[in-house]
Fold this protein.
Amino acid sequence: MPYFLIVALLFISCQQKPQQTVFVRAEVQEKKIEITPLSHPKNFGERLSNAALQVIDSSVVYTPAYVSIPYPMGDVPAKTGVCTDVVIRAYRKCNIDLQKEVHEDLKAHFNLYPNLKKWGLKNPDKNIDHRRVPNLEVFFSRKGKKLALTHNRADYLPGDIVTWMINDKLPHIGIVTHIKKEGVPMIVHNIGGGQIIEDCLFKYPMVGHFRYEGN
């Protein structure tokens, strides 16, 4: 991994019209490909997969700095963000505000989240709590479904959330899509090259697999 990505990632643990047919340009292993959303999504996972395609933007600059944002429905500047912002932005296109949902659950069950132990925070912080991978892992485990970690590509469905641990210390998160490369579902994520779609499901050590459709 390039050094600048490691430095950037160390700062942070680490909207949908499905009936329209649109084409998105994305960088995939140094090749340009065309992808298209499902024209008739059958369930929430397929809707979220479509939403993930809509947030693809390779010009987004990986920016892990702490930012004060509005609440609810707050977002960092559109051309900036980290891996968690990909997930937050896609869910917002499905009318789910993870900022509000994570904040409310964390406020009510602060001791179940790693904020105090990991970052020394004694109170919830609605600017950053939902933008931290470990917090999202707890939230998705509590409010959604925690699924098995396998090497079977068929177990990863559109709209599933996957987390990885890179170099044993860098939490990362992405969204499984319905787009496949040689049968393997592709991921929309941001690891430093913008919000892109990539064949990386089994590229890093996987630590979490979740499915969350809102409360």
Q: What stands out?
A: The longest strand covers residues 170-181. The CA atoms of residues 19 and 39 lie 5 Å apart. The longest helix spans residues 44-54.
